[in-house]
Amino acid sequence: MVAPTDTMGRGVFTSESIPANTLVEISPVIVLSDGDRKLLDQTKLHDYIFEWGEDLQDCCMALGYIPLYNHSYSSNCEYEMDFDAHLISVKTVRDIEAGEELFINYNGDWDNNAPLWFDAL
């Protein structure tokens, strides 16, 4: 479910416990060109798009709850991109308790601690 967070606006929460390695969402994406991305970067949608493609030259807008997962360097979920099928899937990387917020790491790998663009702001 989507609910307000204390510091990050809205987030995705679970209403029941979820075991590790459970697929929680498969979302179709709308693939957009580099030119589209330059336009989106001038809007609030900039914060909700993902780099897309093997060379990361395109971007995509994921449907479903994907754009609402908040970032954490100690995320409890990871996402995987299927460029051919135009899908993003999210699965848990550890057991998650009922009521817990689901986090992904915006770096792509659930345990990647490299600073993100918004850390410099």
SSE diagram, text form:
Layout lengths: L1 E3 L5 E4 L9 E10 L1 H7 L8 E4 L5 E5 L7 E2 L5 E6 L4 E6 L8 E4 L17
Parallel strand pairs: 6-9
Antiparallel strand pairs: 1-2, 2-9, 3-5, 3-8, 4-5, 7-8
InterPro entries: SET7_MeTrfase, SET_dom, SET_dom_sf
Organism: Flavihumibacter solisilvae
GO molecular function: histone H3K37 methyltransferase activity
Structure notes:
- The protein is mostly beta strands.
- It is 6% helix and 36% strand.
- The protein has one domain: Beta Complex (Beta-clip-like).
- It is built from one helix and nine strands; from the N terminus they run βββαββββββ.
- A hairpin with a 4-residue loop joins strand 7 (77-82) and strand 8 (87-92).
- It is globular, with a radius of gyration of 14 Å.
CATH top level class name: Mainly Beta
| Silhouette | globular
Strand content: 35-45%
- The N- to C-terminal Cα distance equals 29 Å
Total number of beta strands: 9
User: How is the main sheet built?
Assistant: 5 strands, antiparallel
Helix vs. strand class: mainly beta
| CATH architecture heading | Beta Complex
Measured as a percent range, the helix fraction is under 10%
